[in-house]
Write a structure and sequence with these properties.
de novo design (two linked rop proteins); Rossmann fold; 2 domains; eight-stranded mixed beta sheet; 8 strands
């Protein structure tokens, strides 16, 4: 289920232009597409999908499959609200796989059948494996947000893989990307299946890394001790869903699509759906795994309380970074440094503990 909603392309460009060029697309090409687009939803010249897809097709014809995948990623942005957007995602996947032989880390795409609500659901995953790490050590399970999916955060995935020297298994959270199911609190069942699969790819130890709404799911994995450790980067936890608070800055309808609404929901409908995501019941327990929680102090989407609520908890390190926003993305080198210091220390403790997945094997 999905729906379109009033959305001005000019506003979207104003918000996302830095992200478009920082991922590697040439500035003149982005500027040309920006000038050509006059409508968000029309699948015709001047329409968002049409103009971005035309640029992507030119890249593909020139053999620049990496740039083509980036452009198709913007064509399908911000959500799969119609057939044109879904078609753009399919072409993005084709171009991404054509670009894969040039990736800095060996890559494969697997399609898993995982338990969900008494049946099975297909979950495609992208696996990056440093040759020296294949089958030998811990595995990072990584999930992105509601509008930045696993192909969109490719650079970050490769950087994490290289920094940590560990395999990375990336997936789209329920309601996004390749997922066949809407976003819901019980999407955690799918994540449990992914954790179980990731355990088979190394020594059994899995660290769930979540970005934005993916950080909500990694926080759930850590608080419930379903993963062996968890990294939460800008994840909404409790305050983001409380007191009538709703997603801001155009995110409400992106989230509405992810939740599976087939029409623009009322504020009450959206709030009721989101209130069920509060992790308060898990916060009230104390059997969590080791956790690292990081966000920017100026995040406009996730309140500071959703980071600070972890302060003082057992086996938890918290960083609320000043002068940066959602997911502290403008201070990514500092975030990676924090992760690179916390992760080896945490893994050493886990591997020395006979109660971990590794010791139990």
């Amino acid at each position: 289920m999905s729906y379109q909603w009033p959305l001005a392309a000019k506003e979207l460009f104003a918000e996302r232009y830095p992200q478009m060029i920082n991922t590697g697309l040439p500035v003149p090409d982005v500027d040309a597409v920006r000038a050509a687009i006059t409508d968000m939803w029309a699948d015709e010249p001047g329409g968002w999908v049409h103009e971005w897809s035309a640029l992507a097709a030119r890249y593909a014809a020139a053999g620049s499959h990496d740039l083509s995948a980036l452009a198709y990623g913007w064509a399908r942005f911000p959500t799969l609200a119609d057939e044109a957007k879904r078609g753009a995602l399919a072409r993005q996947t084709e171009q991404y796989l054509l670009a894969a032989p040039g990736f800095a880390v060996p890559f494969r795409r697997d399609v898993l059948n995982l338990p969900y609500r008494g049946g099975l659901t297909q979950v495609p995953v992208h696996v990056f494996t440093p040759p020296a790490a294949a089958g030998k050590g811990p595995v990072l399970l990584v999930s992105g947000g509601v509008d930045s999916w696993k192909m969109d955060v490719h650079g970050l995935l490769v950087t994490l893989c290289s920094h940590a020297g560990l395999p990375v298994v990336a997936f789209d959270i329920p309601g996004t990307g390749d997922s066949q199911m809407p976003m819901s609190p019980d999407g955690a069942e799918i994540v449990r299946g992914l954790i179980g699969h990731a355990r088979t790819l190394g020594n059994g130890i899995v660290v769930h890394v979540g970005i934005s709404m993916g950080g909500h799911y990694s926080a759930r994995s850590g608080l419930a001790a379903e993963a062996d450790a968890a990294i939460v980067l800008g994840g909404p936890i409790e305050a983001a869903f409380a007191d009538g608070r709703l997603p801001r800055f155009g995110m409400d309808d992106i989230v509405g699509n992810a939740l599976g609404f087939d029409r623009q929901p009322s504020r009450d409908d959206l709030f009721t759906a989101l209130a069920a995501f509060s992790l308060r019941p898990l916060l009230d327990q104390e059997n969590q795994a080791p956790m690292l929680v990081v966000n920017g102090a100026d995040d406009v989407h996730v309140p500071q309380e959703d980071t600070l609520v972890f302060e003082g908890r057992r086996d938890t390190e918290v960083h609320l970074l000043p002068d940066t926003g959602h997911c502290a993305i403008t201070k990514l080198p500092e975030v990676l440094q924090i992760i690179s210091e916390w992760l080896p220390r945490t893994l050493a403790t886990l591997q020395a503990d006979p109660g971990t997945a590794e010791g139990a094997e």
